[in-house]
Specification:
Largest sheet: 5 strands, antiparallel
Helix content: under 10%
Number of strands: 27
Shape: elongated
Radius of gyration: 30 Å
Amino acid sequence: MVAVLVAFFLVLVAPVQAQYSTQADPLSLVISPEYPSSYQTVTVSPRSTLLDLSASTVSVSVNGAVVQKGTGTQSTAVTVGAPGTETRVVVSVTGPDNRTYTAQTILRPSDVALVVEPATTVHPFYLGLPLTAPEGRVRLIAIPDIRTSASTSISPASLIYTWRLGSRILESSSGIGRSVLVATAPVRHRGAEITLTVTSSDSRYVAQAKAMIDPVDPVVRLYPYDPLLGPDYDHAITGTYDLKGTEETFRAVPYFFKEAPKLEWRVGGVAQTAQRDITVRSSGNGAGSSSLEVSARIPNALQTASSRVLLRFGEGKSPFSIFGF
């Protein structure tokens, strides 16, 4: 219940920081981006439904220094500082009747980084970041850097985290200290945008980050397997492969499946073992070639991948078969 109430409170309060005035006010400011990060350049634009800004004198000052003076609704670029600093922007408009209207805002830069960790299949020594599997599990971790001064940070546990899928608030995952989101990725070709808004308890400091969850098609790769050194994950086999002797072992590695798939091997078109490794042996004294194919699939799911190589053995040109077991 607390998380729901907090999320609802954010919907009411957070948008107030966008313009710092109501429609009844003669002058308002539009800030873009709404929640600036450290050292970012933002634009400040005056807006009014009651004043003719094109016939008025518009003056913009930043931290007490006038940086722009003219007429109209021209935007002013303002570069904010480090976390914990404040940049005060004041816009004054003097109309044809010599009446002056003022609007101001204080920009407080705050940062939050999003780490996306898809839970997909890769080999145990994979150095890259796994890609997202269709309908697979994804964990998003927020790392905020929100400060009240250059040396004073707000504890991440006391911040309010509001997670959104598109424009919909994920109420069950939002709340105080809820810095981790575990979600299910969409189906292939349907990306999902996750937006995180982190707010201090007094709503003075706000940071925002976005991440696109875009699933990819799974793949399966073949690797040579040495009985002493193990699988050679640095060299995937593609195209044509020459056997080094009369017997050799290969390992199949499925990538970016939401769970471990079922493997099926074929040697020369003949179905073989369903294990992750297969050993092939050449028979006879001549030479020849045969196909080695592996397919990976998840039953009852539209996730399949296959890989095929041509194995060559011997030194002559007479075709001899090989078999796997």
